[in-house]
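Our consortium's second objective concerns turning raw sequence data into structural hypotheses that experimental partners can test. To show how far this objective has progressed, the report includes one record in full. It was chosen at random from the queue rather than selected for favorable results. The single chain below, 222 residues long, was entered without modification.
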Amino acid sequence: MSSLICGLGAVRIDDMKLYADTPSRRVAQLFADLLTVAWIVGWVLLGKLVHELVSALAVPGEKMDEAGTSLSAKMLEAAGRVDDLPLVKDGIAAPFEGAAKAADQLRAAGEAQVDAVSTIAIGLAIAVVVVPVLMWLLVYVPLRWRFIRTATSTQRFLEAGTGADLVALRAMSTQPLHKLVKITDDPVRAWRDGDADVVAKLAELELRSVGLSAKRLRAVER
């Protein structure tokens, strides 16, 4: 028995049970998966929009940068021309050089504003996407994985030739008591006595709970 369970515990991606056999539950799972994809895509698009809107605030800074760069270049050019004029005293170009330094400060302020806005835009966009998506995935993924793991392991039990008795035993360890007593007042005794009707009902209860069809069990028994 232990070797069988260990063998079934090996992870095989190719035969993982992603969706239930029952149509209603399978449709619900497909809808939930599509909803998850739409949820992620929607928040990514919203994050992109937030990034674009916040990035627009950097336009004044970009204009300051451009104006400062242009003004600095013109002032330095004017200072150079004044220095080249004959009969002009030294230092006459100082005002132009001072204006060029002021223009450089304007350019630096523009660059700083652009960098700050860019950082805020990226941070807000990431927050808009990550927070709601992560909150949803933290709830949805464990539930989805629990189904896949349970359904896959049960399916492998059946594929390995396991009969209704072992599936029924699993039902007694996993199913709530109020469901078990609806089948019989003493499911353990019925299982030990080999009551075929009770064992079959317990096995079907377990299969339904993990999203598998009872037809799988009957196929194994044949």
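The partners drew two points from this record. Residues 1-11 have pLDDT under 50 and may be disordered. The chain has two domains: 19-148, 161-222. Both points have been shared with the crystallography group to help prioritize constructs.
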